[in-house]
Amino acid sequence: MPALTIGSTLPDPPQTSEELLAVQNLLARLQTSLTLRRVTKRNSVRRRTVSLTSDGKALEYKPTRKSRRQLLVFRDLYEVTKMDPASKVYKKAKLNSNTNVVVEMNTRIHRGWRIVFDDKASANTWLQMIGYKVKGGALAPSGAVPNEDTLTGCICATWERADTNRDGKVDLKEAKKMMVRMNVEISDDLLADLVRKHDASGDGALDLEEFTTLFIQLTQHEELRPLFASFAAQVDWMTRAEFDCFLKAQGDVPSDILFNTLKPDKNSRITFTQFVHYLLSPCLNPALDPAHQTGVVDEMTHPLKDYFINSSHNTYLSGDQFQSSSQIEMYRRALLAGCRCVELDCWDGKDNDPVIYHGHTRTSKIRFVDVIDTIRRHAFTASPFPVILSLEVHTSDEQSMVMADHLRTILGDMLMTAKDIPNMMYTPESLKGKVLVKWKLPHNDVDDAKEGLAGSDNDSGAARSPSQKAEASSQGALSHLLRSCVTVGAFKTSDWGRDAEPYYIQSYVETVVKELALSHRDEFIGQTSRMMVRVYPKGTRIGSSNYNPTTAWSVGAQLVALNYQTWDDDMRLNDGMFSLNKGCGYVLKPDYLRNPSGKAKATPCTITVTVLSGTQIPKPSLQKKGDIADPYVKLYINKRDRTEVKTSVVRNNGLNPYWMETFTLACESKEIDLLTVKVMDEDTTSANDSVCEMVIPVRALRTGYRAVPMKLCKNGASLPGASILCKFDIVDLPPQS
């Protein structure tokens, strides 16, 4: 399964009264039952009866061969979208891509449904119904599903999944299952005593309120009581003035909105439990500066060469480099994840229809026209800033002309063409909503520098525009129409970029960049300050593994292309870097990399991290069965082999593990270094499992007591409610000479 589940994709609720009426009519029909068509895992179409559960919090379908009820809980939904009409699902399921619409509904662990609709209007109403149930909205009477980022929200979510018979009660056996799902180790006897104590009705079962009270009492973070007491004069509560003092000590600004979110009593006081919920909430008390989550912070008027640009390698592949399938869906996923540079490996197809695949391998082929249409529809959903299409052209003149025609007719005004170059500033701001084409010419003009170092070639000539560069190709009469679409020129510099334009790009394999970073560091930083550099994985990475991108970033390389289909440690570093600037895909390089001859230098610093406690840490890969987690936390800067430190192991406690251990880590550049906070599960019989983690850019790390949100190591899915509470202190050091 592709790794790109970074950030959920959920539809919006109805925006007009007419849309709301249509949604309400659909919900009324679902209260009885509605016959729909569902695409199975084998891509056959089966009729199923779908209905709302009695509490309205889930969908159920029948018939099913499985022993358990087949529920899709609204709260669990993570990605609900229309499938691309060019997807193979339409063909295999024998659907009409012009009229039928397939809506795919996935959860965080990718278990979901594919529903077939006969027209777009029906599909849109279904999507708005999902948005209404998950998000609520201005037109909704009571708003969205309770926030799972809070403890009570997490309890409600687990309750909905456990109460399969929808009777509003859980007995001792069901309560035990809930405890296991929430990673709580408790003996049967103790749980039985607690159930009896909280069972007001005496029927041997608990309702939601009773179970919530039991759970909160069982899982209080008493280790945080001293922190509470250091600001609160009373044992049981904290006043508004005392809470404001705590915020000021953190370096935060007191806020009426924030305090009221904690639901104080009529005397403007909060309890210890409410204070703990604030501390552990990544929404209310995030470790990452909220400014980077809510808006674009960096100036966007610099030339493109002054930015790190979120980039993908062999975007079309869903797996390895030799025999995996090429999928149009991978472009959609990459773009929605904030990627701004995608790769298209173009070859001649049948019937004058160009295709994209990994040439001379067993990977499957997809149509160029379908990829361009997908890019058109999704290019600017996640970010308004320009998208670069990195073309690998292996086509004949005839099919190159077909490609050019598709680019022009499908992208229309989105496409920046060669004639626009004299009048266009190459900045993210001026290129909003534009698609740029980079063309790497084949054979003689290949610009990979695969063997030698930059500066070893003397055939680049004077600086020319991308279209002039293409015109001079020794390959002869390549399509003039395709050349006119090129606005970012592939270029091989002979003088560390002094002979290049700012919008030129030279490509390097990762091994060459690693060598240059050691042997010609200053010269290479100079080159990346003058022109753009693209870095790509070495050819031996057949399994689509990645390389550490921080080496390339440290010397200013702008387009560090990674295999997006592989969610590994290196891809997680990329995710951390581009969490900056509202995930727009462009991050302004620090001044010392933009102007290496200037006075600015990298800022070294030390980060002192106290790992206090965690909350709602799941089992690896969200497993439901197996032992309770034995978590410990690892911390490292960029390269784990040099800087890694780790806490002790907490046995049998994933719900509220407590460490209170302090470490100091050294950073070479506060401006670009990345801190990883990773939770591991100790396994005494095999290798320890990576559970969840977060990568935070040091430049956006907030000091004080902060909640570090967690993403699942398996695929990058967010884990609402899961967090690690840390105290951060940062001390800047004098720049190195």
TrEMBL record:
PROSITE patterns xrefs: C2, EF_HAND_1, EF_HAND_2, PIPLC_X_DOMAIN, PIPLC_Y_DOMAIN
One function term, GO molecular function aspect: phosphatidylinositol-4,5-bisphosphate phospholipase C activity
Coiled-coil spans in chain: none
EC number: 3.1.4.11
Record carries keyword Cytoplasm: no
One example of a Gene Ontology biological process annotation: lipid catabolic process
Gene3D superfamilies to which the protein is assigned, alphabetical: C2 domain, EF-hand, Phosphatidylinositol (PI) phosphodiesterase
Domain C2 residue range list: 588-712
Reaction catalyzed: a 1,2-diacyl-sn-glycero-3-phospho-(1D-myo-inositol-4,5-bisphosphate) + H2O = 1D-myo-inositol 1,4,5-trisphosphate + a 1,2-diacyl-sn-glycerol + H(+)
Domain EF-hand: start-end pairs: 159-185, 186-221
Keywords: Calcium, Hydrolase, Lipid degradation, Lipid metabolism, Transducer
Region feature (Disordered): 448-473
A Pfam match: C2
Name the UniProt record assigns to this protein: Phosphoinositide phospholipase C
